[in-house]
Design brief:
Blueprint (H helix, E strand, L loop, with lengths): L2 E4 L22 H22 L3 H13 L6 E5 L5 H10 L4 E6 L2 H14 L7 E5 L12 E7 L8 H11 E12 L5 H20 L4 H12 L4 H10 L4 E7 L4 E7 L1
Parallel strand pairs: 1-4, 2-3, 2-5, 3-4, 5-6
Antiparallel strand pairs: 6-8, 7-8
The protein binds the ligand C/C(=C\Cc1cc(O)c2ccccc2c1O)CCC[C@H](C)CCC[C@H](C)CCCC(C)C and S-adenosylmethionine.
Length: about 260
């Protein structure tokens, strides 16, 4: 039976719903949570449109790199509307178990409704849990694989999130982290920024979500390069870490082994 657990209650503080100013970076966790909740109704359609469907290929690669296999217990952190969790579910099958974990209740509601709508038999093995990626409510060494798609860049304390992933992974298991690549090549950075300024933000403006999507550009600028991500993973205790550039260098995927 599909279930949706809400470990954290959304704040009733109306200030959290205020739109972030375009001139000010989105800084506190509650503001980020509110941002992802606002974009939840259009998130999937915009990803398909803006990436010309390419994000589905990148997500398949991320799941494949996680090493998840039939019968495994796996975690999709910052699962949003559930794309990676659904792919993991197909991979681990009905003998396995998938947890989709996110702090936005609205994103989880979209994920849960897709689970019912798509209604593949194996999708019954997915459970949605609301909570913070820096404080995971799971015991040490619980999971055979972890995925995180477009999550780490949006987490305020990335070191803590990596530490938590390390803690809940079983020894020898892998985490696969897909995100925008903060490239060291100025040409790639210019393409990314041009796309965000001239395609992503204008399209999002049509949905009243200009600020939310403009945040993408600053978040990539403030993210870590592939080498820095590898270093962070090693500092957090992972035995091995390799970052792959994909999508012509626009995206990247970190694979780290506990
Ligand atoms: C997958 C996409 C966006 C995910 C996403 C991530 C976030 O952190 C957000 C934060 C706040 C708001 C929204 C998001 C969010 O949507 C879409 C990515 C589109 C890109 C601009 C990439 C465009 C790629 C090209 C069309 C295809 C390139 C092909 C390549 C050369 C092979
Ligand atoms: C860009 S979406 C990615 C969704 C999905 N993984 C995908 O690839 O399409 C980022 C997600 O991370 C979640 N998120 C960001 N920071 C988080 C945190 N500290 N704890 C839990 N979820 C978080 C947001 O709520 C949002 O759903």
């Amino acid at each position: 039976m599909a279930s949706l657990h809400f470990l954290l209650r959304p704040s009733s503080n109306p200030n959290l719903l205020a739109l972030p100013s375009r001139s000010r970076p989105v800084q506190c966790a509650n503001e980020r949570q509110a941002l992802f909740s606002r974009i939840a109704p259009v998130y999937d359609n915009l990803n398909d449109f803006l990436s010309l469907g390419q994000h589905r290929i990148w997500k398949r690669m991320a799941v494949s790199w996680s090493g998840a296999k039939r019968g495994d217990d796996v975690l999709d952190l910052c699962c949003g509307s559930g794309d990676l969790a659904f792919l993991l579910s197909e991979r681990v099958g009905s003998d396995g178990k998938v947890i989709g974990f996110d702090f936005s209740r609205e994103q989880l509601s979209v994920a849960s409704s897709r689970q019912h709508l798509l209604s593949k038999a194996c999708y019954k093995n997915i459970e949605w849990i609301e909570g913070d990626a820096t404080k995971l409510p799971f015991s040490d060494c619980s999971f055979d694989a972890i995925t995180m798609g477009y999550g780490l860049r949006n987490v305020l304390d990335r070191g803590k999130a990596m530490q938590e992933m390390f803690r809940v992974l079983k020894p020898g298991s892998r985490v696969s982290i897909l995100d925008f690549n903060k490239s060291t090549k100025p040409f790639i950075t210019s393409i990314q920024e041009w796309m965000i300024d001239n395609v992503v933000v204008p399209v999002a403006t049509g949905y009243g979500l200009a600020d939310e999507y403009a945040y993408l550009k600053s978040s990539v600028q403030e993210f870590l390069t592939g080498k820095e991500l590898e270093k962070l993973a090693l500092e957090m205790g992972f035995s091995n870490a390799k970052h792959y550039e994909i999508g012509g260098g626009i995206m990247g995927n970190l694979v780290a082994k506990r």
